[in-house]
Amino acid sequence: SSGDLSIPIKNGDVINIASVSGLSPRSIKLTGEVKNPGEYSIQPGDRILDIINRAGGYTSEAYFQGAIFLREQVAESQKIAFERAADELENTIVDIITKDTIDTITQFTLMPVSNLISKLRAEEPPGRMVVNLDTLAMRTDPIVNFPVQNRDTLYIPKRPSSVSIVGEVLNSATVGFNPD
Predict the structure, then answer these.
(1) What φ, ψ does residue 31 adopt, rounded to 5°?
(2) Residues with Cβ < 8 Å from 43, sequence gap 6 or more?
């Protein structure tokens, strides 16, 4: 009651320290073209721009438009979606077989769909999220400057020095970039 918190401890005393939820170590990993790549601890309320700034910002070679941002929670959601798609395909096959919708069904007819179902079940998605990491956009839009979560990872690649030509052309090619 005197306000002095220093109390001598005696043999037999019991000290109970209440746990504070949310104080488990949380971190995000940054690699690639940031000035100081590495693993950074996440403080409550941290957003992606806070972490990029903590890493010193982008290097002059950074191509933030090609960033790869991965989140475990997104990977889990994607895995559930793959499982659901596999279940729906299996149900469709059962419907086709039981309703005799197709006259001649052989194991070869169903093999491609069966392979697709197996691939969907075996796939371990990385949890990639599409993000906008333009510094101006992150500074001005709180939705673009999203909160980070434990075990997120961000890779910023180097600016490419080539251009890929694809689509309605005779020969698809990748050529060196020339500003002229």
Answers:
(1) -135, 165
(2) 50
